[in-house]
Amino acid sequence: MSLDHRLTVEHEELRRTVEAFAHEVIAPKIGAFYERHEFPYEIVAEMGRMGLFGLPFPEEYGGMGGDYLALGIALEELARVDSSVAITLEAAVSLGAMPIFRFGTEEQKRRWLPRLCSGETLGAFGLTEPGAGSDAGGIRTTAVRDEAAGEWVINGSKSFITNAGTDITALVTVTAVTGRTPDGKPLISSVIVPSGTPGLTVAPAYSKVGWNASDTRELSFDGVRVPLANLVGAEGRGYAQFLRILDEGRIAISALATGLAQGCVDESLKYARERYAFGRPIGQNQAIQFKIADMETRAHMARVGWRDAASRLVRGEPFKKEAAVAKLYSSTVAVDNAREATQIHGGYGFMNEYPVARMWRDSKILEIGEGTSEVQRMLIARELGLTG
Ligand SMILES: Cc1cc2nc3c(=O)[nH]c(=O)nc-3n(C[C@H](O)[C@H](O)[C@H](O)COP(=O)(O)OP(=O)(O)OC[C@H]3O[C@@H](n4cnc5c(N)ncnc54)[C@H](O)[C@@H]3O)c2cc1C
């Protein structure tokens, strides 16, 4: 058993590269995009050229040949500076490309993955519906076979879908009911719907509390027809597939939450040294020092949590409980750290021009997206053998 949590030389090199990129390229520009609620195409293109969208995929599909740890490291460093670009990467990789990589046919992989890995296009994953979020097995969208035409006919709608409406969105993989078991339970399958397919309507971007430079849309499907070959994996396996995708995605979200928690420490440290009150820097007060010490402790433990879950995934070991623990803990501490960082900044913390204001607005969704904190507790309790 190895207890060595140090990064390999390659992972540390990646971490430094993304750290420098986030500070030099993203930090000076992102505030303006956020204020304008605008998707930062140039920054995303640069992330693509760096290979970030292909990190955990093999080179034969245009990826970088890395692993989930590499993805987490990149997400953490991006979110230390900005969460909108981090969630754009997280959703594109874990939710957009990963279902095709894990469950797609060779032809689907060759057709879609190279451009998803280069960041020239983005993929989305449509699971949530107006009436089904945590209870994702309760979806109503249907995909019916038209054997004569060789097509699926899709009807329904999806809510809150990340990366679903950018100019470079290539596809959304949607979960849909494709039949019933003999006892009437829905059989759920995943189907790729390319952007621009007739009958697919992409609503205007939502007005959100945070993640304002990321793209989130409602989608509606009105008689949308796609080839039968767009089925991802076996028919009726969609539920099992998305459980796996969400288990992995939680590790990525946890890394992102850790980055936000650490970014709050970075900003608070800087501010505590520069801001004077009562004739000395506020950081000379023990009350402020203790706040920052607690924030650092939480960020550190969140990092240990997501890296442990990612290491298990990479080694091919069970990681469901550890991913839920990491997601629950890191999202909680992201909110805690954002609240404390804002407090340390006083009135300036309430001004959008300060990064901590953005972090505060971006933190809450971490307790909701890719499984709420209540859902994580349900999963952990179930893994501990508690049922009923
Ligand atoms: C910005 C943003 C981006 C998103 N991106 C995507 C995406 O790309 N793809 C996608 O498919 N979805 C996406 N989502 C949807 C997100 O995953 C859901 O919002 C989330 O899973 C919660 O579902 P819900 O909103 O329907 O809440 P509900 O499921 O209605 O939950 C409401 C409340 O009830 C609680 N609750 C529900 N059931 C129980 C229970 N059994 N016990 C105790 N408490 C319970 C929940 O924890 C929550 O507090 C996104 C959401 C947002 C806001």
UniProtKB/TrEMBL annotation:
Its cofactor is FAD. Transmembrane segments: none annotated. One of its GO terms (molecular function) is acyl-CoA dehydrogenase activity. The keyword Aminoacyl-tRNA synthetase does not apply. This is Acyl-CoA dehydrogenase. Belongs to the acyl-CoA dehydrogenase family. The keyword Oxidoreductase applies. Keywords: FAD, Flavoprotein, Oxidoreductase. Residues 9-120 form the Acyl-CoA dehydrogenase/oxidase N-terminal domain. PROSITE patterns: ACYL_COA_DH_1 (PS00072), ACYL_COA_DH_2 (PS00073). Residues 236-384 form the Acyl-CoA dehydrogenase/oxidase C-terminal domain. InterPro entries: Acyl-CoA_DH_CS, Acyl-CoA_Oxase/DH_mid-dom, Acyl-CoA_Oxase/DH_mid-dom_sf, AcylCo_DH-like_C, AcylCo_DH/oxidase_C, AcylCoA_DH/ox_N, AcylCoA_DH/ox_N_sf, AcylCoA_DH/oxidase_NM_dom_sf. Residues 124-224 form the Acyl-CoA oxidase/dehydrogenase middle domain.
